[in-house]
Amino acid sequence: MNTPIDFDLIEQLWQLNQAQIESDDFLSSPKSHPFYRVLQTLTMIAEVKAFKLQTEEAVKIYEFVKSSMIKVYRTDQNMQVSNLDQLIAEAYIKQSNERTSKPLVKAVDHAKRSISLVEKIIGKKAGADSEVKDNYLLAQRLQTLGDVYRETEDEEECEKTFLRGQIMIGNMFGDRHPCIMAFNTNLVTCYSMNTKLKEAKKGIMSQIMEKNFEIAKATYGIESIHLLYHLSCYLINKIAIGEV
């Protein structure tokens, strides 16, 4: 049986006096505050509900946690708030289906908010008026937004968003680093959105797949069991574009 979450009761934790918060049991940093630890637990509960497609309940919890995090940190300009907007976007992506695309409108809004907040926090590159610093968390946020655009079949925005994340990772780690494989694969899924686009981008898709498999072999070795996953992805994509 699902027990309703008493948000009012949880908020009472915030009413602990300063002496209690700064005791040996609860140090004064936000992460050691009992209220913060409860919010972490609530976030995990919301993730389970999102996975079970109980989207409304999940979003309600996420929004409560987000407003509470702003209270804990005394500002809405923090990575916790950005992360919660990303989680809300992901919940709406899971909820969307062939019968309704309404959740995707909300997903775009939250994904963009998450990205905007990370950009504000990390700041601009030295000597650049508008170019934001390369950042792995920002690249992950871009993945989520790209996923939304793929679901809405917005080919141009999907490619632009995924490319930005891929270039960012390449700038940070190099184009042969294993962490770039997921960002390369994003582009393959983008170009697979429809037959016309897939045919136009067939050559690029083939190059990306070959490169990913070469990176995997160099990273794991040809005798590694981990290589089987990448071999499977390689063959599936090759079949999809008609090269096998």
Overview of the structural elements:
- The longest helix is centred in the middle third of the chain and has 21 residues.
- The chain starts with 6 loop residues before the first helix and ends with a helix.
- α3 runs parallel beside α5 and α11 runs antiparallel to α12.
- It is globular.
- The mean pLDDT is 84.
- The protein is 70% helix and 0% strand.
- The chain has 12 helices and no strands.
CA gyration radius, whole angstroms: 21 Å
Percent of sequence in beta strands:
under 5%
What is the makeup of the main sheet? none
Q: Strand tally, please?
A: 0
Sheet/helix structural class:
mainly alpha
Helix proportion range: over 70%
- What's the N-to-C terminus distance? 50 Å
Properties at a glance:
single chain; 244 residues; mainly alpha; 0% strand
Summarize the structure.
The chain has 244 residues and is an all-alpha fold.
Provide the fold topology.
Layout: H1 7-11, H2 18-21, H3 34-51, H4 55-73, H5 79-95, H6 102-122, H7 136-151, H8 155-173, H9 180-191, H10 195-200, H11 202-220, H12 226-240
